[in-house]
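User: My instructor asked us to take a sequence, write out its structure as tokens, and then describe one feature of it. I'm not sure where to start. Here is the sequence I was given:
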Amino acid sequence: MKVGRHPAGSRAAVSHTGAIVGMDDVFDAVVKRAGVVRVTTIGQLVAAAQALAAHVRPQGERLAIVTNGGGPGVMAADRAADLNIPLAQLTPPTIEALKQALPENWSHGNPVDLIGDADPARYRTAVAACLADVQVDGVLAMLAPQAMTAARMPRAP
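Assistant: Let's start with the prediction itself. The structure tokens for your sequence are:
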């Protein structure tokens, strides 16, 4: 993470710390060459730290995206492409399992759009199906809160 990405921020950094923060395009080129994933927000930094702390190391690069919102799914697919992370090609058995479990109007591909009213059970089924697919190395599950979204897990009796 680097501050001073834009001229105003760079000027503010100099006035605050007295240090020159450097050209953003140079920093960007350096981190890309080193194979580093750049973050631009504190939220991204914390998420990256949590992912590293989990010690989960995918065995490959093929990503499945499971979401209840088509727009956020497309945004995630675009970001994966920015990072050279290929989207997994779901196998026919996985597509069939998802067809059996999801509403008729689901996306029928990757990203897997569960539709806005997806409940935890629908997420659980879709993520499990994707994780069982031999063509999938990792799953990004995203929740886009909407008016019809039941985002809370049911309480245990």
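For the description part of your assignment, you could build on this observation: Strands lie at 63-67, 112-113, 138-142. Try explaining in your own words what that tells you about the chain.
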